[in-house]
Amino acid sequence: MCPLTEEETRVMFEKITKYIWENLQLLVDRPIGTYYFRLHNDRVCYVSEKMLKLAANISGDKLVSLGTCFGKFTKTHKFRLHIMALDHLAPYVKYKVWIKPGAEQSFPYGNHVLKSGLGRITENTSQYQGVVVYSMADIPLGFGVAVKSTQDCRKVDPMAIVVIHQAGFGEYIRHEETLT
Amino acid sequence: MGRKLDPTKEKRGPGRKARKQRGAETELARFLPAAGDENSKRLSSRARKRAAKRRLGSVEASKTNESLGTKPSPGKLPKEAVQTPGKKGTQALFNAARDKKHPVPAHSSDEEEDSEDDGTVEQRDLWGSEDSDADMVDDYGVDSDSEEADGEELLPIERAAQKQKAWEAAAGAQWSEEETDEEDEEGMSPESGPTKDEAEGGLQINVDEEEFVLPPAGELDLDAQAPDLQRVHKRIQDIVGVLRDFGAQREEGRSRPEYLGRLQKDLATYYSYGDFLLGKLVELFPAPELIEFLEANEVPRPITLRTNTLKTRRRDLAQALINRGVNLDPLGKWSKTGLVVYDSSVPIGATPEYLAGHYMLQGASSMLPVMALAPQEHEWILDMCCAPGGKTSYIAQLMKNTGVILANDANAERLKSVVGNLHRLGVTNAIISHYDGRQFPKVVGGFDRVLLDAPCSGTGIISKDPAVKTNKDEKDVLRCAHLQKELLLSAIDSVNATSKTGGYLVYCTCSVMVEENEWVVDYALKKRSVRLVPTGLDFGQEGFTRFRERRFHPTLRSTRRFYPHTHNMDGFFIAKFKKFSNSIPQAGTGNSATGTSTDLDSPDLKGQIPPKSENSSQPAKKAKVATEAKQPLQKRQRSNKASFQKLNGVSKGAESELCTVPSITKVQASSRLQGSSKLPGKADVTREPKMTGKLKKLRFSKKAASPRQSALFKGRDTGTPAVQPLSETQATPRLKDRGQTLGKAKGAGKAKQQFPEEPGKKAKFQDSGTPEGPQVPTQVPTVTPRRSGRPPPAKRRKGASQQLF
């Protein structure tokens, strides 16, 4: 377990910034204490200071997971955001999409959101903006990327995809093996 | 909309509905038991007359039966489903009644009854005793009435039962009929029949057998080939009935163990258990409770879930799930986050609320250890066997994501589910590791609280995993017990006793076996500086303090057992320890002095005893310490100071037993045992250096109570003077020999003594080179009586242990 390198930090923050924009600092300096990002076996873990102390005693090969795993670096050093980051990022994300109950059933399966399933969308969402997908009951379901801006969403036909599925909580069941 | 259903209400009167429509009420009435009770219903005039005739008829029937002797009653309707010619009368009736399942014959019988007035004499004859309502004149020629009348009349089975009773009363002596062929393997004793009959006349349900006769041993083979489960089940019930009132109902010449043996085999057959496991269960439960337990294991426990208070509240979650179509209720008064699911139209493990981490599917009994552990915020918690993560997440939610939890499991695949669950539920303060739990204090120690949900044989969760019934045997249970002991010791060592808010350990298993529960806990009490404290759970059965030939520590009463048949949750065992000292007592010989479980203790203890002849009687001391709850702690602390001074004073002596005394006191206080010697820990206990060689007589080796020692501990030396001088002479040379080691050890010991005072988180205490001085067993007066108090009860009161009957 080691701290992230400059390069990795940059890549990761770029990705996260797509979602939470300028609120990035809030992630690091939390009122409870300072949180750090640590790299462990290609996974980025978000941990508090106290945890680091305890985790230092555990040898690397025996350590499975630490704090919250935000995502992992692929072999080509791109950062892939995981669903487990949802709880941390959701409060800070500016652009949100609410989907109808029907789409709520299909989104966890990895399907994209169609216009027919779209309930609400934040104003001024630009194209290819990272969004968090919510259910109508304000439960965060996952991450997505808006393929149409808000204005375009109004015009487009019901079968068109409006949000691409990036990470959804269905992965807890479907991809349990790859979570660690 | 629709009319109210009132099965007892009769439709009377000349109206159309009264006659034609039977309706739900009467349909139901046919199946309701109350429907058959003539006396409770308001009968129509016809019905009353018919009833009167029946009563009359039954009396006649009994008379006719008597005259007929054992000839099968002519009461065999051709339309009756089962008529076995040659069967005795009651048998026929019973069979007829029993086998009649649907109302069609009832119909027919009714119609017959009604139509007999039409002059069908032959049917009446066939009915015979059953229905000698030949003179019934109540037929007003309305066939439709028969349908209605059906509801008012007795069901055929009730008729049969009535006839039975009448017949029995009249022909008591004719009860020579054996029980059914199912039970009858060999000759019955007819004479005992009536007595049994009358004895439980009130409870008589199986009317046709007056006595249960135990089949001889040879008959067992019959069952092995093709067990007739009905028969076996019946026999089980019979045996239990006999055993309940053994004196009165036993068969002559058959002993209780025979009945018990037979019961055990039948239970094994009926419920598909292996012999070993059933034998263990028979030891645990009395027979009626055993059957309840076995029955409960056939049925799954209700699905329960736990609200994740990190993300939602129970009320909101319940509302959301109800909206999805789940039928649920709060779990009980004892849980603020539990919900029990009765049924659900959506898969409960895949709702959006589940995926969003609002709840976790968890057994009710799995919530209890965490409640017992009561983790506080900002603590460091270790969960040694955490998979699949239910308890870990519960701990995290109780701590509100503060502090740190180290979730460990030895099984890599199951760890994946831990990761998934913890992330899903939004637990941020967990570190997940993949160690063998036994490595623990070495890797990291000094936790505030530790939860050990030890791997076990799973005898409490048979309803979830029926394979346990047959694939567990003695080896498995002992292996589990051994592993659990090791894990428990490691867990204890990982707790920091000086923690400000903690110092607690919860040990739990999902097993009901004493070998894995009380025995392991008792072992830990002897080996480590821990004591049992109340779990905080106000329900559940107390753990055993004695079981068969074993005797456990009395504080085991504070542990809790849960059973599927009493609490409707998986079988579970929970014990909560408080660690009061960070030092690890040396393993050793003292255990033999502690008596009761000597021979039953794990073999490794005995193995240690011979080689480590110098082993202190630390365990013995610890046992004593443990036995005396809080009191010794204070005393020890006091004596600790005193002894420390003494130590300083006499350390120069280095060879007398006195030197060893303080060192032992130190150890008692909480440091490594350096040498052995008297332990002034308790005012009432004096310890004396023990002969190293005489390990087996630890109990009696209050030797070497030197005059110096006695001078030091005046008033406390109540030892056996006779023994002392002898051992003293023997001891002193040894002690002298060890003077060096003792001195060194003491030095080290002193240094060590600083250790416990450190509030350090590192609770690792290496063994300081085993300074083996002569051990100090306990003194006769207080210790031995206590000690000796333990084994003798085992010998004396053989029957006092947990018994079935």
From TrEMBL, chain A:
SUPFAM superfamilies, A to Z: Pre-PUA domain (SSF88802), PUA domain-like (SSF88697)
Domain PUA span(s) in chain numbering: 95-170
CDD domains in UniProt: Nip7_N_euk, PUA_Nip7-like
MF terms (GO), sorted A to Z: RNA binding
Principal location: nucleus
Any Pfam family matching the protein: pre-PUA_NIP7
Keyword Nucleus: yes
GO BP terms in the entry: ribosome assembly
Keywords recorded for this protein, A-Z: Nucleus, Ribosome biogenesis, RNA-binding
InterPro entries with a match to the protein in the record: NIP7_N (IPR040598), Nip7_N_euk (IPR055359), PUA (IPR002478), PUA-like_sf (IPR015947), PUA_sf (IPR036974), Ribosomal_synth_fac_NIP7 (IPR016686), UPF0113_PUA (IPR005155)
Location of the protein in the cell: Nucleus, Nucleolus
Entry's Gene Ontology cellular component terms: nucleolus
Domain of life of the native organism: Eukaryota
RNA-binding in keyword set: yes
Protein family: Belongs to the NIP7 family.
Protein task: Required for proper 34S pre-rRNA processing and 60S ribosome subunit assembly.
Subunit text: Interacts with pre-ribosome complex.
Protein name, entry field: 60S ribosome subunit biogenesis protein NIP7 homolog
TrEMBL record, chain B:
SUPFAM superfamilies noted in UniProt: S-adenosyl-L-methionine-dependent methyltransferases
Listed Basic and acidic residues bias regions: 1-13
Low complexity composition-biased segments: 163-175, 587-598, 743-752, 775-785
Ranges of biased composition (kind: Polar residues): 61-70
Location of the active site: C510
Biased composition (Acidic residues): 110-120, 128-155, 176-188
GO cellular component: nucleolus
Keywords: Acetylation, Citrullination, Isopeptide bond, Methyltransferase, Nucleus, Phosphoprotein, Ribosome biogenesis, RNA-binding, rRNA processing, S-adenosyl-L-methionine, Transferase, Ubl conjugation
Annotated Basic residues bias: 43-56, 693-702, 787-799
Stretches for region Disordered: 1-199, 586-652, 671-805
Molecular function terms, GO-annotated: RNA binding; rRNA (cytosine-C5-)-methyltransferase activity
Alphabetical GO biological process terms: maturation of LSU-rRNA; rRNA base methylation
Binding site for S-adenosyl-L-methionine: C385, C386, A387, P388, G389, G390, K391, D409, D436, D453
Family the UniProt entry places it in: Belongs to the class I-like SAM-binding methyltransferase superfamily. RsmB/NOP family.
Known role: S-adenosyl-L-methionine-dependent methyltransferase that specifically methylates the C(5) position of cytosine 4447 in 28S rRNA. Required for efficient rRNA processing and 60S ribosomal subunit biogenesis. Regulates pre-rRNA processing through non-catalytic complex formation with box C/D snoRNAs and facilitates the recruitment of U3 and U8 snoRNAs to pre-90S ribosomal particles and their stable assembly into snoRNP complexes. May play a role in the regulation of the cell cycle and the increased nucleolar activity that is associated with the cell proliferation.
Protein's name in the database: Nucleolar protein 1
Organism: Heterocephalus glaber (Naked mole rat)
